[in-house]
């Protein structure tokens, strides 16, 4: 599995970024089993719009990337009610070998000062992690359809509540899910939350919007 930072024309500080991406894409298609796509432009947008940072540093961008990496690898590091390692993720997420490029998202994303004042609920987490503006790749899932999805919840969360939310998401947004893979949202649950949060969720989506 790789976490690959894809270059963006809007946010670029290296002239050879497009060449690096073009030349490495073939290797990712052929030799990687799972590629989590992250994009500097999307990270900057999240920092500016959601986290309300006027001048994001690379440290701020890396903090977002580390949140997603931590969420995806949670089940490898902690015991949980419903675990999902990278192998299980690949089995559930990759319908065809070459279609292994995933969009990722994380919730809750709030400005640093607002953490202690708001209790976040599972419906709020679900809504926020599925919003296009919170995806860490500047690709709008509404331009394609989800083949498969995975959600990883951390903290004291009821399994029934998570499953109800996922069912609601699938019923409400059925136009954005392919009909030939039924029940294509996988869930994982770990009772240990990330540092500084009571509950969190990480989203991984295999969407045709990534081309």
Automatic annotation (TrEMBL):
<dbReference type="GO" id="GO:0003924">
    <property type="term" value="F:GTPase activity"/>
</dbReference>
<feature type="domain" description="Tubulin/FtsZ 2-layer sandwich">
    <location>
        <begin position="82"/>
        <end position="211"/>
    </location>
</feature>
<dbReference type="GO" id="GO:0005525">
    <property type="term" value="F:GTP binding"/>
</dbReference>
<keyword id="KW-0493">Microtubule</keyword>
<dbReference type="GO" id="GO:0097435">
    <property type="term" value="P:supramolecular fiber organization"/>
</dbReference>
<dbReference type="InterPro" id="IPR000217">
    <property type="entry name" value="Tubulin"/>
</dbReference>
<dbReference type="Pfam" id="PF00091">
    <property type="entry name" value="Tubulin"/>
</dbReference>
<keyword id="KW-0206">Cytoskeleton</keyword>
<dbReference type="InterPro" id="IPR003008">
    <property type="entry name" value="Tubulin_FtsZ_GTPase"/>
</dbReference>
<dbReference type="InterPro" id="IPR037103">
    <property type="entry name" value="Tubulin/FtsZ-like_C"/>
</dbReference>
<keyword id="KW-0378">Hydrolase</keyword>
<protein>
    <submittedName>
        <fullName>Beta-tubulin</fullName>
        <ecNumber>3.6.5.6</ecNumber>
    </submittedName>
</protein>
<keyword id="KW-0963">Cytoplasm</keyword>
<dbReference type="InterPro" id="IPR018316">
    <property type="entry name" value="Tubulin/FtsZ_2-layer-sand-dom"/>
</dbReference>
<dbReference type="InterPro" id="IPR002453">
    <property type="entry name" value="Beta_tubulin"/>
</dbReference>
<dbReference type="GO" id="GO:0005200">
    <property type="term" value="F:structural constituent of cytoskeleton"/>
</dbReference>
<comment type="similarity">
    <text>Belongs to the tubulin family.</text>
</comment>
<dbReference type="Pfam" id="PF03953">
    <property type="entry name" value="Tubulin_C"/>
</dbReference>
<keyword id="KW-0547">Nucleotide-binding</keyword>
<dbReference type="GO" id="GO:0000070">
    <property type="term" value="P:mitotic sister chromatid segregation"/>
</dbReference>
<dbReference type="GO" id="GO:0007052">
    <property type="term" value="P:mitotic spindle organization"/>
</dbReference>
<keyword id="KW-0342">GTP-binding</keyword>
<dbReference type="InterPro" id="IPR036525">
    <property type="entry name" value="Tubulin/FtsZ_GTPase_sf"/>
</dbReference>
<dbReference type="InterPro" id="IPR008280">
    <property type="entry name" value="Tub_FtsZ_C"/>
</dbReference>
<dbReference type="GO" id="GO:0005874">
    <property type="term" value="C:microtubule"/>
</dbReference>
<comment type="subunit">
    <text>Dimer of alpha and beta chains. A typical microtubule is a hollow water-filled tube with an outer diameter of 25 nm and an inner diameter of 15 nM. Alpha-beta heterodimers associate head-to-tail to form protofilaments running lengthwise along the microtubule wall with the beta-tubulin subunit facing the microtubule plus end conferring a structural polarity. Microtubules usually have 13 protofilaments but different protofilament numbers can be found in some organisms and specialized cells.</text>
</comment>
